[in-house]
Design brief:
By secondary structure, the chain is α+β, with helices and mostly antiparallel strands. The protein has a single domain, classed as Pnp Oxidase, Chain A (Roll). The chain is built from seven helices and ten strands. Strand 9 and strand 10 form a beta hairpin. The longest helix is centred in the C-terminal third of the chain and has 15 residues. The chain binds flavin mononucleotide. The site of flavin mononucleotide has 13 residues, from strand 2, strand 4 and helix 3. Belongs to the pyridoxamine 5'-phosphate oxidase family.
Length: 205
């Protein structure tokens, strides 16, 4: 079931109740289809303290947290090495639900990274092989040539990831569920991890 197919429309029917496990609700809200993964915005802070945001695919989710995959040479990986705390925000396709998760992000193990790579589409597999600063510096024809050379050397969907392929899991210690409501104000419920339990807070939408 995708987030957009969750039953009910009223905020009080959709938001996890105080006392319920917000991580179970997170898994239901994010349900990931590897063929059509949800998109989220990942916020990190760079070593100079500047916030950085970018969209990325949510590759998977378990009660431990959502995963995302990227290039080990990217800005986000540099940011997380200096400060592992990050925020991931996901909007449902119908724009009626928003989930914001904050916590430390750390690399997943190599088996998980390989499984996720193999679930990626042929285009995204090739992208992982060709997306580099050197390729980006080329004119459009040069970038197409790099792509064509990768196809002829490795095939249209290389089964092994490049060394630069990596994955992270964000382990939320704060989750904010936002729900729109057709005949009431939108509403948020935030859960903070405190002394091993979840503390719920009601917030205006
Ligand atoms: C729809 C969409 C999906 C994307 N998915 C990913 C992804 O799963 N992983 C990733 O590293 N970048 C993804 N990107 C590219 C990022 O937004 C970003 O440009 C790139 O990761 C470099 O970010 P950084 O330099 O801040 O690390 C996606 C971009 C868009 C627009």
């Amino acid at each position: 079931m995708t987030a957009a197919e969750l039953p009910g429309t009223r905020a009080d029917e959709i938001l996890p109740e105080p006392g319920e496990d917000p991580l179970a609700a997170m898994v239901a809200w994010l349900a990931v289809d590897p063929l059509d993964p949800p998109l989220g915005v990942l916020a990190t802070v760079d070593p100079e303290g500047t916030p950085r945001c970018r969209h990325l695919l949510i590759s998977g989710v378990s009660a431990e947290g959502p995963t995302f995959h990227t290039d080990s040479r990217s800005q986000k990986v540099e940011d997380l090495a200096a400060n592992p705390r990050a925020t991931l925000v996901v909007l449902s396709d119908d724009r009626t639900r928003q989930l914001t998760m904050t916590g430390p992000a750390a690399p997943t193990d190599s088996d998980e990274q390989l499984r996720t790579y193999r679930d990626r589409t042929p285009y995204l597999k090739l992208l992982a092989w060709t997306n580099s600063t050197a390729t980006a510096a080329l004119p459009p024809d040069g970038r197409r040539q790099v792509w064509a050379e990768a196809v002829s050397r490795r095939g249209p969907a290389p089964q092994e990831p490049p060394d630069t392929w990596t994955g992270y899991r964000l382990r939320p210690d704060t989750l904010t569920f936002w729900k729109g409501d057709a005949d009431a104000p939108s509403h948020r419920r935030r859960f903070h991890l405190r002394d091993g339990g979840w503390l719920a807070e009601e917030l205006p939408g």
